Inverse folding.
């Protein structure tokens, strides 16, 4: 019978005759069980003939009973009454009873000879009018003495070794207590099977698997499911949740102590420092087959302190790490990896429908809106849960309004989870991420690399690789940069929050309304670094007015990209800080006369006159730069000339 440990208040109830063993064996047994993490109740204060109801409740709420028989046990009528109640309760409910015969032969208990005969001689006289009670006591002693138990006789060995055998036997009778996974899951079984295949559970090697993916994708849920599925195949196991947060709050030494406590079953382990903790883990676990799961690891130091090497653990051990950072785990040697993918449309729709419609019956009026939510949530379970909870019970119009609001401003609990990966980036990586999510989604990767090199003056490929490793951006099969919608919205919100009410004080502008407001009213500031305007999807757009008077107020504008937008006239001025200038339908045959193009690295002006004086100057200036820079500008000039040809056949 598989009893769940969590259904009992106490793991073990110990009863004994106090005068014989209280300050020796019974006390040491209680201490050893408690140190192993076994919740143990000791009946240490009960006296008299009557059993208190509170004590009976404790017995009812205990999973295992340990009855310590000693030479003088039978003299206590209280102990005998308690024995009868324990037998009646535990045998009826198929619970475990462990008799311990401490320096007394089991036969003496079974047949009530020796000191037990002396005790019952007194009981027969005292309870001569209640012979049934004494008969029950005798029967109980006979029954319990026939159960499998433990016998200790002074001189046959060390008492501490005897106690350890009892503790091991008690521990082995506890089923694995499963960790909570989630209230409702979809698509979990297939992922679970895939991870178990990577774990090769039949191998005696020490194997590691890294589970990685963006925040909210379900890494922790998957790790918990693995723990519940395979945990009973290991001698020792430990699931350390949220290593990142807990190490920041309590320190890594605390996590080392917790790891050891759970693995070896000892409470109050205090290693003192990380070095001693490492030694303790290696020494105590090097021969054990362990399952160790570290959830949400974000630094190499955490891995080195908690999982310094595979030789720390015994044959057949498995170590599983979850992290947002693919690169971190690869560096530490976790060769087997599993990326948690987004839910497919069908699974995402099932999870969302379960969250929104409590009865599981989908109202057909919401079908299109459900698909819209699934697309917006990008298959991220956390997003589906959060959005679903916000939409449950609302009308169709309220759904539309809420979704419009979310697309402009993601819910805080989603934003906070996703932004953790952003916060872990260094400053240059953050800048590259914001550039891409705000302005360059859907661009060819090669174009993004060129633009970023022009903006920052150095190759940013490594930074892009970091963003990919952290699952913040993806590269599609056709080579385009494609952040998930939720990730894209997170990046945009970060920039909007720089100045919620005044777009002119933000670092990047991409909303048409914001750009028109800033340019038309000359509200540009030194904060603006990129202006990216693409009106290819807008029909019958009105002409935008910009005289460029505020160019001097934008000395940090590095990138100006305007695609398929109609301006009433060309600006009189352009910022000399520009490094990338791309302007389709530029409304003039030449650039402003006082524009200094020396800093330009990329220039695309598809409808300007062929080799205008400005372009001639652009080429001449390039010659004075380094050979690499010159070649780069030649390439972009060639691209520019080709774009002119393409433009002639393109009708706006």
């Amino acid at each position: 019978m598989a009893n769940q440990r969590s259904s009992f208040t106490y793991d073990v109830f110990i009863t004994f005759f106090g005068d014989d063993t209280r300050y020796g064996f019974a006390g040491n047994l209680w201490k050893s069980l408690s140190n192993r993490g076994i919740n143990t109740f000791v009946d240490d204060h009960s006296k008299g003939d009557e059993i208190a109801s509170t004590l009976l409740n404790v017995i009812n709420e205990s999973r295992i009973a340990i009855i310590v028989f000693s030479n003088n046990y039978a003299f206590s009528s209280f102990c005998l009454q308690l024995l009868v109640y324990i037998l009646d309760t535990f045998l009826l409910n198929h619970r475990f009873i462990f008799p311990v015969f401490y320096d007394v032969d089991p036969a003496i208990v079974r047949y009530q000879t020796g000191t037990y005969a002396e005790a019952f001689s007194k009981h027969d006289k005292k309870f001569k009018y209640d012979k049934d009670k004494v008969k029950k006591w005798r029967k109980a002693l006979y029954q319990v003495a026939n159960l499998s138990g433990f016998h200790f006789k002074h001189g046959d060995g060390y008492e501490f070794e005897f106690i350890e055998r009892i503790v091991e036997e008690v521990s082995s009778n506890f089923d694995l207590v499963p960790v909570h996974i989630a209230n409702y899951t979809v698509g979990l079984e297939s992922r679970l099977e895939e991870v178990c295949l990577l774990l090769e559970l039949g191998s005696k090697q020490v194997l590691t698997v890294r589970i990685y993916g963006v925040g909210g994708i379900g890494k922790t849920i998957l790790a918990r499911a693995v723990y519940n599925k395979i945990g009973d195949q290991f001698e020792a196991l430990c699931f350390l949740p949220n290593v990142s947060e807990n190490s920041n709050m309590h320190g890594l030494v605390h996590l080392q102590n917790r790891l050891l406590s759970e693995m070896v079953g000892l409470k109050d382990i205090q290693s003192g420092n990380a070095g001693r903790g490492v030694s303790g883990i290696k020494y105590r676990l090097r021969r054990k087959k362990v399952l160790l799961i570290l959830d949400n690891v974000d630094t190499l130091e955490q891995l080195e302190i908690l999982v310094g090497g595979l030789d720390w653990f015994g044959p057949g051990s498995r170590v599983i790490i979850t992290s947002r950072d693919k690169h971190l785990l690869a560096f530490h040697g976790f060769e087997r990896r599993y990326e948690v993918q987004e839910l497919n449309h069908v699974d995402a729709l099932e999870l969302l429908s379960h969250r929104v419609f409590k009865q599981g019956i989908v109202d057909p009026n919401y079908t299109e809106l459900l698909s819209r939510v699934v697309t917006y949530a990008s298959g991220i379970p956390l997003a589906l849960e959060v959005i679903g909870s916000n939409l449950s019970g609302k009308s169709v119009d309220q759904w539309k309004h809420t979704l419009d609001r979310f697309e402009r401003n993601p819910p805080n609990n989603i934003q906070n989870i996703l932004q953790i990966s952003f916060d872990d980036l260094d400053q240059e990586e953050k800048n590259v991420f914001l550039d891409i999510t705000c302005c360059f989604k859907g661009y060819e990767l090669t174009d993004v690399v060129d633009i970023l090199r022009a903006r920052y003056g150095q190759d940013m490929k490594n930074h892009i690789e970091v963003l990919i490793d952290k699952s913040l951006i993806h590269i599609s099969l056709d080579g385009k940069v494609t952040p998930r919608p939720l990730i894209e919205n997170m990046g945009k919100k970060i920039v909007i929050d720089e100045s919620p009410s005044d777009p002119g004080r933000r670092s990047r502008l991409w909303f048409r309304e914001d750009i028109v407001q800033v340019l038309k009213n000359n509200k540009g500031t030194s904060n603006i670094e990129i202006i990216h305007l693409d009106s290819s999807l807008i029909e019958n757009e009105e002409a935008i007015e910009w005289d460029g008077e505020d160019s001097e107020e934008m000395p940090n504008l590095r990138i100006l990209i305007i695609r398929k937008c109609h301006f009433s006239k060309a600006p009189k001025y352009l910022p000399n800080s520009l490094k990338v200038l791309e302007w389709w339908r530029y409304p003039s045959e030449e650039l402003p006369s006082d524009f200094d193009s020396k800093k330009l690295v990329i220039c695309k002006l598809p409808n300007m006159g062929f080799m205008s004086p400005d372009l001639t100057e652009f080429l001449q200036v390039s010659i004075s730069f380094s050979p690499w820079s010159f070649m780069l500008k030649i390439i972009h000039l060639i691209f520019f000339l080709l774009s002119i040809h393409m433009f002639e056949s393109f009708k706006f």
